[in-house]
Amino acid sequence: MKGTVSICCLLSLLLLQARAEEEEDFTSSLRDRSHIDETLRLAEEEKAGDYAAALQKLRKIYHTSIKPMEQAYKYNELRQHEISDGEITSKPMVLFLGPWSVGKSSMINYLLGLQDSPYQLYTGAEPTTSEFTVIMHGEKIRSIEGIVMAADSSRSFSPLEKFGQNFLEKLIGIEMPHKLLERVTFVDTPGIIENRKQQERGYPFNDVCQWFIDRADLIFVVFDPTKLDVGLELEMLFRQLKGRESQIRIILNKADSLATQDLMRVYGALFWSLAPLINVTEPPRVYVSSFWPYDYAPDTSRDLFKREEISLLEDLNQVIENRMENKIAFIRQHGIRVRIHGLLVDRYVQTFKEKMSFFSDAELVFKEIVDDPDKFYIFKSILAKTNVSKFDLPNRDAYRDFFGINPITSFKPLSSQCSYIGGCLLEKIEKAITHELPALLSSINSGKQPGLSSCEATGCGEKPKNRYRKN
Question: Where is average pLDDT lowest: 138-142, 160-164, 455-459?
């Protein structure tokens, strides 16, 4: 009897020892995350007062100088992009795109340190993310339904209502207290499945992606070594990314699953697949690493992967640091488009009045003008104005649809859009574009103190580019 008890005790001790060794091995296999906090400078306190004051000035410039012309000439009906206060005050948005099960959700879990917590995003080898998931800062951890997010005007997601209730059921928000989320918002998207038709999703997937692409400050397009083929849905996605090449970062994830020689072949194959889709003179930057919390596989290029990860984090950090400059540049770009739209509508109105006579048929006269604007020098006359580039001119066909909804007689010429107290719409928007917004940008840049980048500290050897400022 005593012998049996001794054997049972011995087996229990061995079992406990084995379990402790397993837990120790599991803990040691987790990757060190200290470089994430260091590179993103999460321990540093931000000057919230200066940032809030600059945002208040930006909102005032937009509401007093740009929005009046935007409303007077119904710019939102041409571009379908109305800027809300929530969008002006929102944090930078980082968008994750790519095929299914390439590690998008795992990458977010890794950056936020959510692995093995009840709040981590679900991951797996099968397609797991079927919703658009917005991860943002909040005082406590909670999930928010898409219907609630769209109904809250203080957020920047209220325009998503136009995609219908089926989409709002596939939109979810997650709030949690986190230092990184105080400065940036992550958006995880459903993986691209090439054998699924768009209509099977129940909502306009490409249109929703375009909405997020237009508002993203940084776009991570993630691949892994097993999913390099390009199908129709991925090809459509890259068409939607045209003009946003400076914000795209291509990531070859799970790189430690391959030997070095195989990784070189896969890297070349990825470039070969993407070359027809990205028509730019400078090839896109491809980051090669393994973005998840566990240690790199043995006998792989772990030093290279670490440097690549730090380079990517530096790109993310620069978006965070330059968020105010990016917002000012975005509002100024929007103001330029609104000004050009106002000038074009004014020119259409003037031409219509010049061609009308007592016996003219108003409908036929305007149809002739809108069908062939070049005959009446509509667009060429705009190019004679100051600070108008031919590359900023909108599509001529768009105005046929625009005036099909909005009668030409509903618009006043710019010369009559003046008041004694408010001034003229054209003068106010031109002053904002040429003086007020550049002055606000200069005040932001002059208040910045240059600091040591973590690339200089770690030797990653690359300095991220700022597309809004010449180096």
Answer: 455-459
Instruction: State the amino acid at position 62 in one-letter form.
Output: Y
Query: Count of alpha carbons within 13 Å of 183, Cβ hemisphere only?
Result: 22
Q: What would the pLDDT profile of 173-228 be if each residue is shown by its tens digit?
A: 999 999 999 999 999 999 887 665 545 678 888 899 999 998 999 999 999 888 77
The answer to whether 291 touches 110, Cβ cutoff 8 Å, is yes
Crossing angle for the helix pair 48-61 and 437-446, to the nearest 10 degrees: 170
Report how far apart the first and last C-alpha atoms of the chain are (Å, whole number). 83
Whether the Cβ atoms of residue 462 and residue 304 lie closer than 8 Å to each other: no
Q: Which amino acid is at 111?
A: L
Q: Hey, CA dihedral for 433, 435, 436, 442, is it positive or negative?
A: positive
Look at residue 94 and give its three-state secondary structure.
Answer: strand
Q: What angle do CA 372, 373, 379 make, to 5 degrees?
A: 150
Beta-sheet pairing, 142-145 with 171-176: antiparallel
- Separation of alpha carbons 292 and 448, rounded Å: 33
Determine which helix (DSSP H) or strand (DSSP E) holds 143, and give its type and residue range: strand 142-145
Q: Are 389 and 355 in contact (CB under 8 A)?
A: no
Residues in Cβ contact with 422 at an 8 Å cutoff, skipping those fewer than 6 apart = 68, 428
The enclosing H or E element of 187 equals strand 185-188
Q: What 3-state DSSP class applies to 399?
A: helix
